[in-house]
């Protein structure tokens, strides 16, 4: 009896010793998701994604970029990263992909997620990436610049940007457009964060703003974990569940940031 008790105690001690040095399992509360919007829109489009992430235990920061220049937008995004608790999963939609490619070098960022987004390499910008569209690709209805800023034709906004969004919402998005600075389109990335950080990419297969073949090519070049869903350029508005699911996969898979020294 005494011998059996000693054996049980010994096994328990070994089990405790083997787990004592193990790092605690990461939970959603250990990471903050920072959401970066693209051109012509603001951060309110992330509402559905925000709701899901918060429900699932993540802390979320929604960036409100002025979309005036890449430098300005990166500065605003870096302030959001600095304010975030724990490691950061940095998410960008459309032009927001350029912003996160530049801002994502911050040591707090452990993962990048591109949602129907530009993923430029060193020296590339939105302007250079859209300079030679593939034959037959849809042409976004961008109006000529006024005072250095761009808008989409309101009458064509829904079809081009938000074909699967509820009509009333698409109309609101068209009427509440944020001017997109030509300087932002011309801002070139210095050192893309995806070269050093793990990345994920969601291709919207019905996108009429960034051609799906271009999205796939950028995702493959970045070595991103790629998923595809049917959806317009506003897939994050129309299908927040799929977008949030990919973000959560990235958050669970990404390594932790190196401890500060």
UniProtKB/TrEMBL annotation:
<dbReference type="InterPro" id="IPR029058">
    <property type="entry name" value="AB_hydrolase_fold"/>
</dbReference>
<feature type="domain" description="AB hydrolase-1">
    <location>
        <begin position="33"/>
        <end position="245"/>
    </location>
</feature>
<dbReference type="InterPro" id="IPR052897">
    <property type="entry name" value="Sec-Metab_Biosynth_Hydrolase"/>
</dbReference>
<protein>
    <recommendedName>
        <fullName>AB hydrolase-1 domain-containing protein</fullName>
    </recommendedName>
</protein>
<dbReference type="InterPro" id="IPR000073">
    <property type="entry name" value="AB_hydrolase_1"/>
</dbReference>
<keyword id="KW-0732">Signal</keyword>
<dbReference type="Pfam" id="PF12697">
    <property type="entry name" value="Abhydrolase_6"/>
</dbReference>
<feature type="signal peptide">
    <location>
        <begin position="1"/>
        <end position="22"/>
    </location>
</feature>
């Amino acid at each position: 009896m005494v011998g059996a008790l000693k054996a049980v105690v010994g096994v328990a001690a070994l089990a405790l010793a083997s787990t004592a040095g193990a790092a605690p399992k990461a939970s959603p509360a250990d990471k903050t998701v920072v959401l970066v919007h693209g051109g012509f829109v603001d951060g309110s489009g992330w509402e559905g994604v925000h709701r899901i992430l918060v429900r699932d235990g993540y802390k979320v920061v929604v960036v409100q970029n002025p979309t005036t220049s890449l430098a300005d937008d990166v500065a605003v995004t870096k302030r959001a990263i600095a304010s975030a608790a724990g490691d950061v999963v940095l998410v960008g939609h459309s032009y927001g992909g350029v912003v996160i490619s530049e801002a994502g070098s911050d040591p707090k960022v452990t993962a990048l997620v591109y949602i129907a987004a530009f993923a430029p390499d060193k020296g590339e910008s939105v302007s250079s990436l859209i300079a030679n569209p593939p034959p037959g690709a849809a042409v976004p209805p961008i109006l000529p610049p006024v005072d250095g800023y761009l808008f989409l034709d309101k009458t064509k906004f829904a079809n081009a940007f938000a074909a699967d969004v509820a009509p009333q919402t698409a109309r609101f998005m068209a009427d509440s457009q944020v001017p997109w600075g030509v300087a932002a389109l011309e801002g070139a990335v210095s050192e893309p964060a995806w070269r050093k950080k793990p990345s994920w990419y969601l291709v919207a297969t019905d996108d009429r703003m960034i051609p799906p073949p271009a999205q796939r090519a950028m995702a493959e070049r970045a070595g991103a974990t790629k998923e595809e869903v049917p959806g317009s350029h506003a897939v994050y508005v129309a299908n927040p569940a799929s977008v949030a699911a990919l973000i959560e996969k990235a958050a669970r898979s990404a390594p932790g940031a190196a401890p500060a020294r």
